[in-house]
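Deliverable D5.2: sample structural annotation.
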Amino acid sequence: MHNSLVRPAKVAITVFLGTNALEIRQLWHPPFLEAIRAMFLGRTLIGTTFVPWGLLHDAVGRAVAALLVRALGGSAGLR
């Protein structure tokens, strides 16, 4: 039987990998990404500069979100 519920730890790990990959990609400046970053939407979605503190802020945000999910009893399909 397929379990449609996702564990908060799996969600947190997936978000951790995705946001860290995005942060680290800000160190990469090929012409096609620079063209995207030249537009407002590109700057907003993928950022322009790498700031190491961003990794810490992301980690704190994920930890708070995981605690909230646990405190709320795993609502919204999470357990």
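Annotation notes: Residues 52-71 form the longest helix (20 residues). Residues 20 and 55 are 7 Å apart (CA to CA).
The annotation will be released with the project's public dataset once the embargo ends.
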